Amino acid sequence: MTSILRAGVIGAGVFGGYHAAKYAELADVELAAVFDPHPERARALADRFGGRAFADLAGFLAAVDVVSIAAPAAAHAGHALAALRAGKPVYVEKPLATSPADADAIIAEARKQGLTVACGFLERAAFAAMGLFDIPQAPTRLEATRLGPASPRSLDVSVVLDLMIHDLDLALALTRAEPLAVEAEGACVDNALFDQVEAEVSFDDGFTALLRASRVARGRERTMRLTYPSGEVTIDFLAHTFENTTPFALDRAFEETPAGKDRLGASIAAFLAAARGGASVPLADGRDGARALDLALAVEAAVGG
Questions:
Q1: Half-sphere exposure in the Cβ direction for 92 (13 Å, CA)
Q2: Is the pLDDT of residue 292 over 70?
């Protein structure tokens, strides 16, 4: 792969703009192309950060070396498979796909092509910066709240695939245990798909995750409490602060580290390093995306049941 990577962004909405901005500011990356089925949106984003605007996917893929997919969730799998078949490593915003079959197809195609797939679970960057992944004890309990006000974005999926999936991924990343049972309840408030959900996930080693998510709340809240045999860690993701009563050292200045300041930047940097080859890996790969999707769909099924 060339020393200067030509990056392309699929989806010219808010998150596509975030990805385009990150690529445009990197010295060893060129934002080469933006694809969106709405040509005027592709042109507007390309004009802001450079590169060419495309309304046809084949032309877009021929112009780039790596791809970020920030389109609506229902389109993730189709775009990811097209990019992989064209020989391009892909970074897919969460969720990786909306069905297990599509997630499996993405993983299989990436393996066949020998290409990197990253999934956009940004909170992993904050956890790594804090040192949470280095605690030598497994947590016994996780309690997470992820609330946000009404928004016109991501209404093609439920709040589980929109918001709660971040905390489901963190639960899976913090334990080697496997999910055993799921109980959940929820409601559709303003939209056709679930807008608020509460879930309890039991794992086969006794670890329990209690999760609450809403996209029709009055304000924003992103908090988590992790219980260990030796104490607790309580995190406020919005304030970038935590309290720690365990005996294990965590980095109180994590918000001043590069990853703490810029979770998307850290996630994209890990993706690009993996795409270039060598021993580097994404913060979350396709298999992580598929596991989080499976658990998210289990939560949805429990609500529906």
A1: 37
A2: yes
